[in-house]
RNA sequence: GCCCCAGUAGCUCAACGGAUAGAGCGCCGGCCUUCUAAGCCGUAGGUUGGGGGUUCGAGUCCCUCCUGGGGCGCCA
């Protein structure tokens, strides 16, 4: 895996020091050396503005500093040209030979060519999904699971050891309400005139599940004591119905999990007691108004105190979150924990950070990744989603109608901090023109070329990559080596949306190559392509297939051989 | 009232503090006897919500105002 940016930054730093030793530059502290990709080819493959930033410390014109740095730049075989341009940039152009070698390197290293070692094996847990388990996932949660799953892929590629977790909130009042609602639907299915609780879950899905349970179990739960019946329905509803549907929806979208963590286990295994004791010892708990409070206001006057144990004796959600995160960071010892949360939970972030401090943990070990909520447009109207009111579009339904790859791409192509509108009608209607198909089409075309090559007996074996000198070929190679930088950017900023843009750019460059450079000899007439060039281009095309497939894989999408 | 996020082309959205702000969709016009036309080429479209400031340099950082979304519960 090439680390061009890092090598360049180091070399620039070295050159400045050398020039300073030779008294060609005055002594000054070298600032961070930013390496960027210029927008125009006339500025080379990479550029740095470090001389512009240094000008005020060096008390010299940026152009003059740049000239001195270039003079002392260490010799390398992978750079062809180093130039200076106004108002003081240093521009670097990669050697053609080095670029061509990367094709061989990609073929040799395969899909892991672009992986980096940013994480150095650190153990990170990404928790995503984790909706209240009281019904099927709605569309809005698609954004949550797609961001989380893709981020996990990216961090894995960036050298972290990743665990993917779903937190099942199977304790608390919402579950109780769910059980009562399900009981009512079950009873109604058997002809009993039992009303839904006032704040109960109204969704159609509960009526279906009630019906199913009535068919499977008959009047069993009507005859049982109410408490016992509610417990049984809660268990059946949660394990069989809710989690069953969530697992199915995730699977349909290609969302993977390594672990499903049940909230109730925090109580049954003593985790909850342990953390409460810790907080008590640190004098952060206070009994007041019949409840027990976490006195966050003593830690930070921006914060309000928070109830941890309600006057009913039941722990509140914040209490279980403390225990849960203690479990992740201390008991299970993850170096870093990332929770993917919707913007409706943002108010919870400062409390969680304060809680980390209260437990004596470094707050940076916990990242709360907040994504802005999705607004749904259907039939030209904005729809408000509410599971309890039953107005929802189910994620599974969306996946069936629009297709998993298109759904993922749609949710993925926006930065997490920007609001997005999902126009369901447009997504269905335009599924053929969705950019995801553009990327997949490029992959399918490559597969087609390779099939055709085999049928005609053309082979890449012995292909000489130094024949790959056409501008379209070199542009493709340049884009391929960029994937490492994209993975890094996505991992550092927790911004998986960069992948979608990269994928489109790579596909575009392949399309241009396809237009300008024939791979296989023409069947009839001339001019054709020499055998040498065919072999070299087959190597290039195979490499592109690897990088494109890897990019699609990181986004959790399929790389079709035919379309 | 206080806190968080956003405001960029007709629409949906990009842009590590860097050079001339970019894509897709949509509009209009071209290109299939040749490896997949789900493709390619061309045209049009912008005072980056308004106003100040910091900086060699601001869509990006700071202040302020306006607009939209979210939060401020013994729900999660």
Write up what this structure looks like.
It is a single chain. The chain is α/β, with parallel strands linked by helices. The protein contains 21 helices and 15 strands. The strands form 4 sheets. Strands 7-6-5-11-12 form a 5-stranded parallel sheet, with helices on both faces. A 4-stranded antiparallel sheet has the order 1-2-4-3. It has a 3-stranded antiparallel sheet with strand order 8-9-10. Strand 8 and strand 9 form a beta hairpin. It is globular, with a radius of gyration of 29 Å. It binds one RNA strand of 76 nucleotides through strand 1, helix 2, helix 6, strand 10 and helix 12.
Shape: globular
Low-confidence stretches: none
Total count of helical runs of at least 4 residues:
21
Give the N-terminus to C-terminus distance in angstroms: 31 Å
Major sheet: 5 strands, parallel
Summary?
With 563 residues, this protein is of the alpha/beta class. It has helices at 4-21, 50-58, 62-71, 96-109, 139-157, 173-189, 204-217, 220-223, 226-253, 264-268, 271-281, 317-331, 349-358, 395-402, 404-412, 424-429, 435-455, 471-481, 483-492, 498-516, 531-554; strands at 35-36, 46-48, 79-85, 89-94, 123-127, 161-168, 259-262, 285-288, 291-294, 306-309, 336-342, 366-371, 374-378, 381-383, 420-423. The two termini are 31 Å apart.
